[in-house]
Amino acid sequence: MNDIIFSDRLKLREPELKSLYMELYGNEACYRDLVRNLAVFHESRSKSLKCRDAEKRMTPGWYKSEELLGMMLYIDNFAGNLNGVREKLPYLKKANVNYLHLMPFLDTVPERSDGGYAVADFRKVRPDLGIMEDLEALTAACHEQGMNVCMDFVMNHTSEDHEWAKRARAGEGQYMSRYFFYADPSVPREYDKTVPQVFPTTAPGNFTWLEDAGHWVMTTFYPYQWDLNYANPIVFNEMMYNYLYLANRGVDVVRIDAVPYIWKEIGTTCRNLPQVHTIVRMMRLIGEIVCPSVILLGEVVMAPEYVAPYFGTEDRPECHLLYNVTTMATTWHTVATRDVRLLRQQLDVVGRLPKTQVFLNYLRCHDDIGWGLDYPTLESWGMGQPEHKQFLNDYFRGLTGSDARGELYNEDPVTRDARLCGTTASLCGMEGDHKQDAIRLDLTLHAMMLFQSGIPVLYSGDEIGQINDWDYKRDPNKAADSRYLHRGKMPWDLAEKIRDPESAEGQIFAGLSQMEKLRREKRAFAAHADFWTWDTGSQQVLGLGRWLEGQLLVGLFNFGGESCAVPLDDVYADMLGGELHSYAVELPGYGFAWLEQEL
Ligand code: GLC
């Protein structure tokens, strides 16, 4: 029965898959190999996962549900290893989490790992974290509890410790052609004319000279992360097999890492090229054929105009989910400026996108915050780009007298451009002298994130207001990369305090819990509800509205330190406290209100 369904799915999608493949590669033999393997991977997919495929096909928009709440975590920091995470599922349940993003856990060499984003073997778990069977046990346990599991698929590059890289380094032509190898520096020089740098301080340049191999190799990220050459159909095929292998271990959401970078052309920025979209579209078709319950989350950390195109079109969809990166950066801009105008404009842009497009909302993740803001607008308000970035970076390092504590990331020695690191709580001021203000701001930012359409994803530790881990500087494998500032171990001793309502941990955990539950209960939080922003009469207060089937929700978020009375057009009930607010509501400094009305 399943096989009939598989062949139907294949039949339906093959014409498009084949035409895209032939357009890109023109290689019939490789295409046949791909299709043969789709059947092999489907064949080896477990019965229970095939059932999951069938179930999820009944609710194809399952990932758009307002009932989803995500958390991303490092397995070792959170619970030592994969089995440890399984044991901690009750805690995650208590934190209302039903979408679990496991940070990279495949085999990597600790000294050359980039937090696990330098994969040495796509089919092996990092030994200290467990084995593949542990992953399967964890995904199965998550599924039993109604949780979805997300993992990274690092497709732009492999580690130099990957078998292909080792064989390429040894001079095997077949493997050299899976990467970008050049004996002569002239081609790298051509690329360098137009390709910007990702890590200008920690890993300058886009190529690395391999003394032993006598070649340059393209390394857009760290020198030990070798870019894969997707112009070679064998690379595409083999990486698709790795993707399907991992999907068959029970992963529900595949985060395609650094996807805008996967196609390279001299004379371009090597970002967001049309071929990238062809490849993502093919991945979507392949997933729909072999493992239809698995969805794609695109990691597109790019200027706003490049992000939404990764949803594809209605007829030819690409990613199911994308990060709401501009809203995230603009939120932190608003914290520093206490001026909600840009955030309002950004939320209006997102609100105008088709409701079928689902974003993943977040305040912090494992990476730095890049200041990808709408600079033309800021400039029209008299805020120049370099000065503004400098202001933000100073603010979040506490240099302007704020309580925020963060660190710069990859300050470009030439342009002076820099990004920023730090946990949500520390950036909200939790390490400073005004803890209650920090707690209120922290909850207000979460309240704003939870009020938006899309999947909210917490960064592990944020549910208890975890602060920065300054100790990373003592670990030689981490010291040079300030992103480790916000990659500390889960402080389980502090997590104990969630039962103490006086503690910061207790206040944040309970505050989030209450909002997360409301989000599941109120129908107007559905992704297809109407969503709008409104002018609250105060530059420091953001006003958001939602409406669905007679339910009106109003969110007010005060980014200023002083309390503020906001006029209302009617009487509203407070969703959190239950009291009524008649024609006005008083927001404390850094406070918020969630109001409702049944019409
Ligand atoms: C993504 C990851 C980041 C990593 C990079 C290279 O952007 O989020 O942590 O350094 O890819 O793989």
Spans with pLDDT under 50 lasting ≥5 residues?
none
Mean pLDDT: 96
Class of secondary structure makeup? alpha/beta
Number of strands: 23
Largest beta sheet, briefly? 8 strands, parallel, barrel
Ends distance: 48 Å
Estimated radius of gyration: 24 Å
Determine the strand fraction and express it as a percent band.
15-25%
Percent of residues in helices comes to 25-40%
Q: What best-fitting shape do the alpha-carbon axes yield?
A: globular
> Which molecules are bound besides the chains?
alpha-D-glucopyranose
Please sum up the structure shown.
The chain is α/β, with parallel strands linked by helices and 599 residues long. It is 37% helix and 19% strand. α1 (2-25) runs antiparallel to α2, α1 packs antiparallel against α12 (274-290) and α2 runs parallel beside α11 (233-247).
